[in-house]
Write a structure and sequence with these properties.
123 residues; mainly alpha; Four Helix Bundle (Hemerythrin (Met), subunit A); elongated
């Protein structure tokens, strides 16, 4: 009986630990996607591809806003969102250089946000 109870507690503890690891990894999924698309926006912007920059900037913004809605991120995420909104505005106006600069600022902030999230979650 005692051995069974100890085994059950051990299994429960292991399951709880594994569940927390999955949560910690999925908790930053939106930030990861936001950063990935922001980086793609910068690459395309540097190549002068305004349409592709715009496409990735919109995707990045969607994920960054989803991250904030899910309670992820911090003030760096908020700054990243603002810069991505500016990047989109300038890309829509055809100002690829200015849009690229804002997209790069968004990358810098999202990267800082993601780093602090990973430190906070124990990664």
């Amino acid at each position: 009986m005692k051995r069974t109870l100890i085994s059950m507690i051990t299994i429960f503890a292991a399951a709880l630990f594994l569940n927390m690891q999955v949560y910690a990894d999925s908790h930053t999924a939106h930030l990861d996607e936001a950063l990935k698309h922001a980086e793609e926006a910068v690459v395309h912007g540097k190549e002068g591809h305004v349409n592709e920059l715009l496409e990735h900037a919109k995707e990045s913004l969607m994920h960054a806003k989803a991250a904030r809605a899910a309670g992820e991120g911090n003030t760096h995420t908020d700054h990243g969102i603002k810069h991505m909104e500016d990047a989109i505005k300038h890309a829509e106006e055809g100002h690829v250089d200015v849009a690229t600069k804002h997209a790069q600022e968004a990358v810098d902030h999202l990267r800082a946000s993601e780093l602090s999230e990973h430190e906070h979650s124990g990664h």
